Structure formats: structure tokens, C-alpha cells
């Protein structure tokens, strides 16, 4: 469906279930090109926003009633709450993300003072690792800022609010990358962000003779949240042991050379591998961006491949389906690089593929995947899109 068709069907649904008309907003999902599991380690990331994402139609009310519905869930069944009891979570319910944003705003001193009606629709497949939840959070922060006139909330604050909602309200202790990409994305550009200082640069990401191809393994990353928090704790424990010699607060502050010289300070072998990934991946991300600036897609692609190997073997956040998709991609001429993207445990791969090799890649991956796993992967050939914005 085109954006126009999406908005038309949402407007009709909004009138049907809530009555009247509202204002439309959009926030994108993201794909991370390289720099995985580095954001909560104070390292670098290199994501771009997608043109896929989540839409909302919203209308403020005069009373204290909040009504939320999503066209993706239970045929837009309405969940009702009030400005006084929105903090009551239901385990696993999608509104926890949106409730979390109202809470994060309150914590920032921006109290939602009256009710509203909102209808959502998202075209990112849920559980695919393309940040459908971050887009939902950033979108909610955006429209609440707009309808309640929270002028002190900046575009970057939308990212912090979304992260706070996910981390402290929903309970997935995520880094800033996904919400940052959703809020700050730019058409045809990727963002090189240093999460320690929040300094960032936009880099053009339109590749000469090649495209970004996302492959959805259709394995939902359900384990992601608990395993994610474990990885994060393992990295923090490794920092503590490295503190015997290095005055650091995050693994991103350590060079590859320093890590190699002193990794034995980390007593546990598993934690050592986790830390190795974080330090090396940060270094790879910096080198990959240098390569891209020099128009060297071949080196960029090789670093993507190394990133995958490290995520598979040292960080252990991949799964057999994804490892196969990546290994099969590596065999095809014209594939510059291919790796798992996002939090892991399923979801998608991201590949850079020469224009004339894309159909061969898709046909091969589809046939082999169908034969081995009896399910069909989905492919999205993407270009970077705009960050969260009001449509009107
Ligand atoms: C998830 C988190 C991000 C980031 C990635 C891994 O998407 O939300 O903050 O840590 O995993 O790179």
C-alpha cells in the first residue's frame, strides 16, 4: 500500500471507531548497516531510517479518556485508559510502549493533561528486528508533543523519551540507536553516531551500482529481550574487571590493542568474548565508515561480513536460519557484504548487493530457504527515509 492509501484507510477507520477526524503523523523503523550491540557499550553505530514505519491519526479530547487502537491488532479493538491510570501495564500488551512514552514525558515534566483518541498502523513486520517498537515510541512522543504543545521537547528528545519508555517502563534495557534513527533519520543518508558523546554525522548512502537489501528470515526475535539484557550485563561486568587496569566506563573507550593486551583481566571466557565483540565491532564501524567515505564498498562489505561472524560466534545473538541466509549470500558474486541486523535471535539480514546480482541472490536465497526451512523469506530493497514527522 502507498502512503496515500494507508492514510485513506486509516482516516476511514478512525471515523468509524472514534468518530470525527484527526491529524496524521509518521515515524520510521531503521536498518543498522554496522555497529551492532555497540550503542549501550558507548561505541559507534551506523543506522539509517527506513521509509517503512508506523503511522498515527490522533485527536485530542476534552475529557480524561485515552483511547488507543491499532489496525495491526485485533481488528483495531479499542484499549481504553485514563490520564490517571495509564501506567497500569498488561504484560506483553502493545500499549505498554505508548503508555511508557506518556510516563517518560511526565518524568520530564510534560504532563499529558487531557485524553485523546489515537489509531495506529505500522507496515514494519513485527518481531523482524527493524524497530517497529522504537517507531511506535518515537511516533507517540511526537504527536503528544504536538497536540499538547510541549515546545521544550526537541526532535532528539523524542529519541530519549522513546528509549526511556522502552528501557524503564517496558523493561528492555536498550541503547539509543533505534529511537535515534527513527527520530533523526534523513532521506538517502545513514547516521554515524558516537553513542558516548551523541555526536553524529549524516553520510550519503546511495550506492553506485548497488542496493541495500533486507531479508526477513520470518523468525520472530522473541528471546531478544531477556537475552539482550543478559548481554548488556555481561559487558558491564567485563568493564568492572578491566577497571583493574583501565579507567573506563564503557567498552567503547577501549582500543582493540588495549583489549588484546589486557583481555585476560576478564576471568570468564564467555564475558571475554562478549567484550571482544563490543570492542572490535566499534573499531570495525569506524573503519567501515572511513571506507564508505572513500567510496570503497568492497571494504565496507568485508567489514559487514566480519561483523556477522563476531555476532554469531562471540556475541552469540544469531540463529541457524539467519546464519544460513548470510552464508548463502556470501557465496554469490556481486554480494559485497551480508550480516544479521538489529538485536538478533531472528529478524533480518542486511546485505549490499550489486544491482545486477539482486535477482540471483533473491532466487537462490528463496529456493534454499524454502527447501531447508519450508518457509519463504521476504525481501525489501530499501533506501534511507526521513525521521519522524507530522503529515497533517
Ligand atoms: C536493539 C536495541 C538497540 C541496539 C541493537 C543492537 O535493536 O534496541 O539499542 O542495541 O539491538 O545493536
Which short descriptors sum up this protein?
single chain, 392 residues, alpha+beta, six-stranded mixed β-sheet, 11 helices, 13 strands, binds alpha-D-galactopyranose
What do you see in this structure?
With 392 residues, the protein is α+β, with helices and mostly antiparallel strands. The chain contains eleven helices and 13 strands. Strand 7 (189-194) and strand 8 (199-204) form a beta hairpin. Helix 8 (269-293) packs antiparallel against helix 9 (297-313). The longest helix is centred in the last third of the chain and has 25 residues, at 269-293. The model has no long low-confidence stretch (mean pLDDT 97). The structure holds alpha-D-galactopyranose. Alpha-D-galactopyranose is lined by residues 32, 36-37, 39-40, 174-175, 177-178, 342-343.
Would you kindly provide a brief summary of this structure?
It is built from 11 helices and 13 strands. With 392 residues, the protein is of the alpha+beta class.
Strand content: 15-25%
Radius of gyration: 21 Å
The main pleated sheet reads as: 6 strands, mixed
Strand order of the main beta sheet, please?
5-4-6-3-1-13
**Which stretches of 5+ consecutive residues score pLDDT under 50?**
none
Quick one: how many beta strands? 13
Report the span from N to C terminus.
19 Å
Question: Which range best describes the helical content: under 10%, 10-25%, 25-40%, 40-55%, 55-70% or over 70%?
Answer: 40-55%
| Heteromolecules bound | alpha-D-galactopyranose
**Structural class category:** alpha+beta
Order of helices and strands: HEEEEEHEHHHEEEHHHHHEEHEE
Shape from CA axes?
A: globular
Q: How many DSSP helices?
A: 11
Quick check: average pLDDT? Answer: 97
Amino acid at each position: 500500500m502507498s502512503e496515500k492509501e494507508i492514510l485513506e484507510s486509516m482516516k476511514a477507520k478512525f471515523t468509524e471507531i472514534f468518530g470525527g477526524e484527526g491529524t496524521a503523523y509518521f515515524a520510521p523503523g531503521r536498518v543498522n548497516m554496522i555497529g551492532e550491540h555497540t550503542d549501550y557499550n558507548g561505541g559507534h553505530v551506523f543506522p539509517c531510517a527506513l521509509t517503512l514505519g508506523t503511522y498515527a491519526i490522533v485527536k485530542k479530547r476534552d475529557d480524561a479518556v485515552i483511547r488507543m487502537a491499532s489496525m495491526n491488532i485485533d481488528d483495531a479493538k479499542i484499549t481504553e485508559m485514563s490520564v490517571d491510570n495509564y501506567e497500569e501495564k498488561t504484560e506483553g500488551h502493545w500499549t505498554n510502549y505508548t503508555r511508557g512514552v506518556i510516563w517518560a514525558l511526565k518524568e520530564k515534566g510534560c504532563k499529558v493533561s487531557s485524553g485523546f483518541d489515537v489509531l495506529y498502523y505500522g507496515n514494519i513486520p513485527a518481531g523482524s528486528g527493524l524497530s517497529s517498537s522504537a517507531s511506535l515510541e518515537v511516533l507517540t512522543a511526537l504527536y503528544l508533543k504536538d497536540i499538547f504543545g510541549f515546545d521544550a521537547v526537541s526532535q532528539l528528545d523524542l529519541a530519549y523519551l522513546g528509549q526511556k519508555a522502552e528501557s524503564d517502563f517496558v523493561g528492555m534495557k536498550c541503547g539509543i540507536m533505534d529511537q535515534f534513527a527513527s527520530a533523526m533519520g534523513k532521506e538517502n543518508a545513514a547516521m554515524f553516531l558516537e553513542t558516548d558523546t551523541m555526536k553524529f554525522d549524516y553520510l550519503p548512502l546511495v550506492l553506485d551500482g548497488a542496493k541495500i537489501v533486507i531479508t526477513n528470515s520470518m523468525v520472530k526475535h522473541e528471546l531478544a529481550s531477556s537475552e539482550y539484557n543478559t548481554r548488556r550485563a555481561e559487558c558491564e561486568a567485563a568493564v568492572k574487571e578491566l577497571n583493574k587496569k583501565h579507567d573506563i566506563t564503557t567498552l567503547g573507550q577501549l582500543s582493540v590493542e588495549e583489549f588484546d593486551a589486557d583481555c585476560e583481566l576478564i576471568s570468564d571466557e564467555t564475558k571475554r568474548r562478549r567484550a571482544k565483540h563490543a570492542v572490535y565491532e566499534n573499531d570495525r564501524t569506524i573503519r567501515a565508515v572511513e571506507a564508505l567515505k572513500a567510496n570503497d564498498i568492497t571494504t565496507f562489505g568485508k567489514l559487514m561480513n566480519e561483523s556477522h561472524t563476531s555476532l554469531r560466534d562471540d556475541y552469540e545473538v544469531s540463529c541457524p536460519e539467519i546464519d544460513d541466509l548470510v552464508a548463502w549470500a556470501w557465496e554469490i558474486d556481486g554480494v559485497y557484504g551480508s550480516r544479521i541486523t538489529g538485536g538478533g535471535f531472528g529478524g533480518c539480514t542486511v546485505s549490499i548487493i550489486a544491482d545486477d546480482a539482486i535477482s540471483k541472490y533473491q532466487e537462490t536465497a528463496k529456493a534454499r530457504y524454502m527447501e531447508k526451512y519450508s518457509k519463504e523469506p521476504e525481501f525489501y530493497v530499501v533506501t534511507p527515509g526521513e525521521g519522524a514527522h507530522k503529515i497533517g
